Amino acid sequence: MPRFTTIAVFAATLALWWLASRLGWVSPFLLPGPGTVAETMGELAASGELLRHTLVSLKRVLLGYLFAIAFAVPLALAFVLSRPLRATFEPLLEFLRQIPPLALMPLLMLWLGIGETQKVGIIILSCFFPIFLGVRGGFDSVDRKLIDVGTVCGFSRPEIMLRIVLPSALPAIVVGLRIGLGYSWRALVGAELIASSAGLGYLIVDAENLARTDIVLAGILVIGVLGLLADHLLRFAIRRSAPWLSGDLEMARA
Amino acid sequence: MLELSGIGRRYRVGSGEVTALADIDLSFPTGSFTTLVGRSGCGKTTLLRILAGLERPSEGEIRRGGDGKLRTAVVFQEARLMPWLDVAGNVGFGLRGRVPRAEAAERCAATIELVGLSAFAGAMPAQLSGGMAQRVAIARALVQEPDLLLLDEPFAALDAFTRRTMQNELVSIWQRRRPTIVFVTHDVEEAVLLGERALEMQGGRIVGREAIALPYPRDPTDPEVNLHRRAILSRLMATPAPVPA
């Protein structure tokens, strides 16, 4: 989409929001105008509160995401390499995949307490499956015909792995990583809404208790912007390192 | 010399077995140009895959002349390009790590020029037409300067004009470098235009051999070409097509 259209859509949404609060379509108590929210955001930023909560949340997302990668990638590779392992454990994993991570929250709180471990745990659970399925699917779907090309060239098994299988699997892996990143942001707020004393999710729920919808909206906007930034950063990194993947990347928007 | 004796290939299909190749005894003299012609499903591709080492025969023996190490290159029915590499990267795919970098680059550039794609050396496969992609695949095989060049209906996807040019180009490369060529096609005319001999296949067996001692380049409208065509066709039509398994 051209940059102009993107800006226009954002501006129109903002204008509609402004009109809705200005003309009293919605009570300003329930939906404060963009000006008020911006002002609140400025105050939160000036006091350092916004940065503090943001850093706490960022740390949780990053930790959870990296741990999820550390668990999901080796497990997916083990499934690709060992058929018996896959046949044995796949049904169990399929079962676990159906359970929304937030439904496990009470259990996680009992097991892990209400500290950082529980919050990072929720994020790991949320982004584990997209990453796992991306990696497994990527290796599963490698075109055997391309492997034939390597065999005919006299490549060794490691060479085929490195020069054909891995680059072939990369698009699906990247899609999994990108969807996983999105899920980690969504799970963050869920984790922080309950039993938390810092983080953007806490900022939102605390403001709700004080009936400060302006702070709630400020928190929501910050989460949206950070998620978007993280996604762009990932896409930028991929476009730089693997330009042919640009098309596949768009699949992850689904 | 490349020799096959008693080669057979069977596949398990469900609880039964299908015979793809049976009793293949052939020899390919070094530097010869052989075409394999027959209907779809007659076993041509299976035979080629066995020659390429991509499949093992169920029975029989393959003897490779010399030290047994034939540098082999294959052009498949589809281009099979690596979508993450540009044209130059795809052409040099089999050379990396085997030939000094400078030499590889030089050979790649020369081969890309040979197939008429110099202007597209930096293009990605997704930007190429089917015919261009296939020319890249042919360049990828030629650049390896193979002793044994196996081609599986490589020109089927090309338009008639490009096909003609590529056929002539292949013959002239063969005349200059003299690799042993095995060329699979279902087009009897193509088999006659290219090969020193055409082997006719039907139902997994060699059912006829046609020696073609005409000078190159051959003209499709030449009455001699037509005579060979008619001979091959009449034999292939006389043998009943196998009942599909």
Which keywords apply here?
heterodimer; A: 254 residues; mainly alpha; MetI-like fold; 11 helices; B: 245 residues; alpha/beta; Rossmann fold; 6-stranded mixed beta sheet; 3-stranded antiparallel beta sheet; 7 helices; 9 strands; globular
Compact description:
Chain A is 80% helix and 0% strand.
Explain the layout of strands and helices.
The complex is a heterodimer of chains A (254) and B (245).
Chain A lengths: L2 H20 L11 H14 L1 H33 L1 H15 L7 H8 L3 H25 L3 H9 L4 H37 L6 H10 L3 H29 L4 H4 L5
Chain B lengths: L1 E12 L2 E13 L4 E6 L5 H9 L6 E6 L7 E4 L11 H5 L9 H14 L15 H13 L5 E5 L7 H18 L2 E6 L2 H7 L2 E6 L2 E7 L11 H16 L7
Parallel strand pairs in B: 3-7, 3-8, 5-6, 6-7
Antiparallel strand pairs in B: 1-2, 1-4, 8-9
Instruction: Report how far the terminal alpha carbons of chain B are from each other.
Output: 35 Å
What is the share of helical residues of chain A? over 70%
Uncertain regions of chain A: pLDDT < 50 for 5+ in a row? none
| Uncertain spans of chain B | none
CATH level 1 name of the domain at 2-71 and 146-238 in chain B: Alpha Beta
Overall average pLDDT of chain A = 88
The tally of domains of chain A stands at 1
Tell how many strands the DSSP assignment of chain A holds.
0
Strand content of chain B: 25-35%
β content of chain A, as a range? under 5%
Look at the structure and give the CATH class of chain A: Mainly Alpha
Description:
The complex is a heterodimer of chains A (254) and B (245). Chain A has 254 residues and is mostly helical. Chain A has eleven helices and no strands. Chain A has a single domain (35-253), classed as MetI-like (MetI-like fold). Chain A is globular, with a radius of gyration of 22 Å. Chain B has a domain at 2-71 and 146-238: P-loop containing nucleotide triphosphate hydrolases (Rossmann fold, 3-Layer(aba) Sandwich), CATH 3.40.50. A six-stranded mixed sheet of chain B has the order 5-6-7-3-8-9, with helices on both faces. A three-stranded antiparallel sheet of chain B has the order 2-1-4, covered by helices on one side. The two termini of chain B are 35 Å apart. The relative contact order of chain B is 0.18. Classes of the chains: A mainly alpha (254), B alpha/beta (245). Chain A binds chain B through residues 143, 145-146, 148-149, 151-154, 159, 163-164, 167, 170, 242, 244-245, 247, and chain B through 52-54, 72-74, 76, 78, 80, 82-84, 93-94, 96-97, 124, 126, 140, 144.
